[in-house]
Amino acid sequence: MLVALAAVCALSLAVGANALPLSVVVDALTSYDPTNPDHLVVIEKRVPRTLVGLVAGAALGAAGTLMQGLTRNPLADPGLLGISAGASLFVVGAISFFGVSQVGGYVWFAFIGAAVAAAVVYGVASVGREGATPVKLALAGAAVTAALTSVVTAVLLVDRAALDLMRFWQVGSLAARGSTVMWQVLPFVVVGLVLALALGRSLNGLALGDDVARGLGQDVTRTRVVAGIAIVLLCGAATAAVGPVAFVGLVVPHLARYVVGLDYRWVLPYAVVAAPVLLIGCDVIGRVVARPGELQVGVVTAVVGAPLFIALVRRGKTVSL
């Protein structure tokens, strides 16, 4: 998987409207010449784009795995807990009410929106004697997502300028994401990944059911809270950076389980590596199929991810959590 990741990163640096030999890419990385236009393309455009793909992909892979393990729902992805809808609402608000028009400005609004939506979902699901059970989390997430999406649609219908700017973020893209965006979200992703990778054993316990996990001495509430914090950090950062990219957080955990089994101590690190392979690979495909233009990565992940997910599900192992 690491070899595959290195290969797609190399392709990401070499492939584009102006295809470059790998020798030129290596020369740009080792002996950068700011007067060479090919070096400028590699260093100023493609390196930041690839790094954003690495960071966002790792975040989406870990977040999707956590969400499926936490909710015991094989269809869980960053949209399940209202993450994408909350980010979208705050981005629309930033565009429509505050005049924000740059990707760097979207990041903080999207992240705050994702965190607020996740907190609302968890708060609603926690009401009652049983607390935030997997079923209640899924239902609360669906309800909050529907409510937030309706508000976003209402704002966009009456604000044409917001609609024009929003549609480029909403589709999901690595284009025009510079190093500034990557550095803004990187601390949140690092903290989220550390928390996620530390939860492998606890997710194995939750997979047996809450009662069995408690019988084994596990603090189920603490596990859910820590996992929820990690999900907010990872989903919020990834969605803020590249938009609501579909299928990566859904497909990659199933792919990792198909390779290594059901032990989350292995599934999580494999998902962290496999998700950037899928995301950056789809970004490269988007640059090739529509030259001299390109398809946004969110479109390509949907086209590639849907058949892949169907093929994995038909194997039977993927729906076992």
Automatic annotation (TrEMBL):
Pfam families: FecCD (PF01032). It is found in: Cell membrane. GO terms for biological process: siderophore-iron import into cell. It is a multi-pass membrane protein. Residues 1-19 form the signal peptide. The chain crosses the membrane at residues 50-67, 79-100, 106-125, 137-158, 181-204, 225-247, 267-290, 297-314. This is Siderophore transport system permease protein YfiZ. The gene is yfiZ.
